Amino acid sequence: MNRSFGPSLSLLALAAALFVAACSKSSGPSSPYGATSAPSAPAQANTVVMANIAFSPTSITVAAGTTITWQNNDGVDHTSTSDNGVWDTGTIAPGQSKTTVFNTPGTFTYHCTVHPMMTGTVVVH
Ligand SMILES: [Cu+2]
Predict the structure, then answer these.
(1) Mind listing the pLDDT tens digit for each residue in 46-103?
(2) Are 62 and 122 within 8 A, CB to CB?
(3) How far is the CA of 50 from the centre of ligand 1 (A)?
(4) In degrees rounded to 5, what are phi and psi of residue 79?
(5) What is the pLDDT confidence band of residue 44, given thresholds at 50, 70 and 90?
């Protein structure tokens, strides 16, 4: 009887240790923007860049009342168009930018009408 309890208790302890390790690791910096983005650069915090047929960052979190700048650094036209019709920048030509003000808290998904695979998320607190 003891023999069957031994191994399973060890496995439980191992699983618990791994769980704790995973939790403490994920409770670190929660920035989805990548390691290179400096937290001390508020001027860029509200800008979503369009480049290589993608939004960057793909998910951005801002406070209510924040203006987001959509900057097209790509070689082709793009749009930032809410999936639910909340906003639509219309065409943003290469090298140009447009802005959208987000006053309502929520999670908003959007896409580019030119490239439907090009999607992103705005989270407003
Ligand atoms: Cu596009």
Answers:
(1) 999 999 999 999 999 999 999 999 999 999 999 999 999 999 999 999 999 999 999 9
(2) yes
(3) 8
(4) -135, 160
(5) low
> Which residue type sits at 43?
A
Query: In sequence order, which ranges of 27-62 are alpha helices (DSSP H)?
Result: 42-45
DSSP string covering 94-117? TT-EEEEEE-S-EEEEEE-SS-TT
Measured between alpha carbons, how far is 39 from 124 in angstroms, rounded to an integer?
Answer: 18
Q: Identify the CATH assignment for 44-124 out of 3.40.50.1000, 2.60.40.420, 3.40.50.720, 3.40.50.300.
A: 2.60.40.420
CA of 121 from ligand 1 middle (Å) equals: 15
Which residues hold their Cβ within 5 A of ligand 1, which is an ion? 78, 112, 114-115, 118
- Distance between Cα 66 and ligand 1 center (Å): 23
Tokens 């808290």 locate to 105
Query: Whole-prediction pTM value?
Result: 0.65
Q: Which of 94, 67, 92 is nearest to 81 (CA)?
A: 92
Per-residue pLDDT, 49: 98
